[in-house]
Design goal:
It contains 16 helices and 27 strands. By secondary structure, the chain is α/β, with parallel strands linked by helices. The chain has 2 domains: 302 residues, Metallo-dependent phosphatases (Purple Acid Phosphatase, chain A, domain 2, 4-Layer Sandwich), CATH 3.60.21.10; 211 residues, 5'-nucleotidase,  domain 2 (Alpha-Beta Complex). The strands form 8 sheets. The protein has a 6-stranded mixed sheet with strand order 4-3-2-1-13-14, with helices on one face. A 6-stranded mixed sheet has the order 6-7-9-10-12-11, covered by helices on one side. A 4-stranded mixed sheet has the order 23-22-21-27, covered by helices on one side. A hairpin with a 2-residue loop joins strand 22 and strand 23. 48% of the residues are buried.
């Protein structure tokens, strides 16, 4: 018998070191350096009849202050990112949706000099060969032929500006897998699918957990495509390890907090006779010093850069102490972001989100570190022309964020936390006056909506500034889409905020008083 061990990382988002960069001494139980130790130990412990396969499952080159620094300082060398993964000797890589955030040219540079193939079977079009090496790879070890099929969530065009995807098309991963898996079954003894995507339904019961948009198709994949021996997933930042529809499946969370492990046991006829799936926590692993040495000088520069001051704030405090209160009553930090959006987009209406409960906002003497820990996405800005009816529908989606308990306690609707935490899909608007009444049914909670003191009419058109993720309908906002965009600002929002602070000697924090939530 032969045992095949499949180790995977996914959604590391450039968190190389065990830190979230909250301060220069911040230490966290996560990061690629810790995952590298887990992977290295597994390789060293492998017995002669054991095969170790390693997969990097996407969302690697964007998401941390480290990767932001590389993107904004071309001379620093974004190719360091693949120097790290190459030194770790992955067998294959897959592109995540965030790989496209900085455009194709940056993607090509950051993913250069690899010693492993980048797989993307459902990324097609004339330019696809410029960013992926092949749809699949076949590895032969100890006489066992192991195929890895690479897939990326087909929803990428919904989030990204068109010029980030020139010449590319994204096919449904189910359609792609139906074409490729039967072929690979004829060529290989083991077929692994590495999918940067997750599950649109509960993988056990099949109960839908989100609209069927094509963003996540893991359940359909397992139900409709026979012949898969192991499934590596990601994108949703969930920690999953189980047998679904007879297929061992993993999803190792985010930021290198865990490594996925799938074990397959093959008999003498090279058939899988047993399987298992589990996650290996990286919390107690020591960071791999041999890997850290490759980027130690860059990390020092990153930490210094993060502590550079950016402007001065006065007035109401922009420090977020109670995230739920900020969502219910507004916050000067959110007002500042909306003010920046309105100034850059030349509108008097804007919307933004408190992305997660770790957002701390800004101090009176803010630094780049504070800003990037509060606004961590390289979203650009768009302005859309919207009807009053569409604005009301968007606000109803926002109002559905809250649940009202019998005792009057306000909580977050499970739809925004399960199966994936999506707190970033609740927006707060500036430039409109509105009221949510949580005592009313979902879909009927917007009881006041005014613009410049007058009720917003369904057929009235207004221009609204927002980040391009939301502008393309991301977060289940179908009333927003690229066809309604009338202006775009190519500078990302963290830089727009920095520029705004630099352009003003003092920026006054302002309380938000334009909306209320009745509970």
């Amino acid at each position: 018998m032969v045992k095949v061990r499949i180790l995977s990382t996914s959604d590391v988002h450039g968190y190389v070191y065990p830190t979230k960069y909250l301060s220069i001494v911040d230490t966290q139980p996560l990061g690629l350096l810790k995952a590298a130790t887990i992977i290295d130990e597994a390789r060293q412990a492998a017995l002669p009849d054991e095969i170790v396969i390693t997969i990097e499952n996407g969302d690697w080159i964007q998401g941390s202050p480290f990767t932001t620094y590389l993107a904004k300082h071309p001379a620093a060398g974004s190719e360091q990112l693949t120097q790290l993964t190459t030194s770790l000797h992955y067998d294959a890589g897959v592109l995540g949706n965030h790989e496209f955030n900085y455009g194709l040219r940056y993607l090509q540079t950051a993913e250069s000099d690899r010693d492993y193939p980048l797989l993307g079977a459902n990324i097609i079009g004339g330019e696809a060969q410029q960013i992926v090496d092949a749809p699949y790879t076949i590895i032969e070890r100890q006489g066992i032929r192991i195929a890895i099929l690479g897939l990326t969530t087909a929803y990428v065009p919904t989030w990204e500006p068109a010029d980030h995807l020139t010449g590319l098309k994204f096919e449904s991963i189910v359609t792609t897998a139906k074409r490729w898996v039967p072929r690979l079954r004829k060529q290989a003894d083991v077929v692994i699918v590495a999918y940067h995507g997750g599950f649109e339904a509960d993988p056990v019961t099949g109960e839908p957990t989100e609209r069927a948009t094509g963003e996540n198709e893991g359940c359909r994949l397992l139900q409709e495509v026979p012949g898969i021996d192991a499934l590596v997933t990601g994108h949703q930042h969930r920690q999953l390890a189980d047998i679904y529809h007879g297929v061992p499946t993993t999803q190792p969370g985010e930021k290198g907090a865990a490594v996925g492990l799938i074990e397959l046991t093959l008999d003498k006829n090279k058939r899988v006779i047993a399987h298992d799936a589990r996650l290996l926590s990286t919390a107690t692993a020591k960071p791999a010093e041999w890997l850290a040495n490759l980027v130690a000088n860059t990390e020092t520069r990153v930490q210094s850069w993060l502590d550079q001051p950016i402007g001065r704030l006065d007035g109401a405090s922009l420090t977020v102490k109670d995230p739920m209160a900020a969502r219910l009553h507004g916050h000067p930090y959110l007002q500042l972001v909306n003010t920046v959006e309105m100034a850059a987009g030349q509108t008097d209406i804007a919307l933004t989100s408190l992305f997660n409960d770790d957002v701390r906002g800004l101090s009176h003497q803010p630094t780049i570190r504070e800003l990037l820990n509060s606004y961590s996405y390289p979203n650009t800005l768009v302005v859309e022309e919207l009807s009053g009816q569409n604005i009301r529908l968007a606000l109803e989606r926002c109002a559905s964020f809250f649940d009202l308990a019998a005792d009057g306690t306000v909580t977050v609707n499970d739809a925004f936390t399960t199966p994936k935490v999506q707190l970033y899909n609740y927006d707060i608007y500036s430039g409109l006056t509105y009221t949510f009444d949580l005592r009313r049914p979902v879909g009927q909670r917007v009881v006041q909506l005014n613009y410049h003191g007058s009720p917003v009419q369904p057929s009235q058109t207004l221009t609204v500034a927002m980040n391009q993720y939301r502008g393309n309908g991301g977060g289940d906002y179908p009333m927003f889409n690229a066809r309604k965009i009338i202006r775009e600002v190519s500078t990302d929002l963290p830089e727009l905020i920095m520029n705004y602070l630099d352009d003003h000697d003092v920026v006054m924090g302002q309380e938000q008083t334009n909306f209320k939530v009745i509970s």
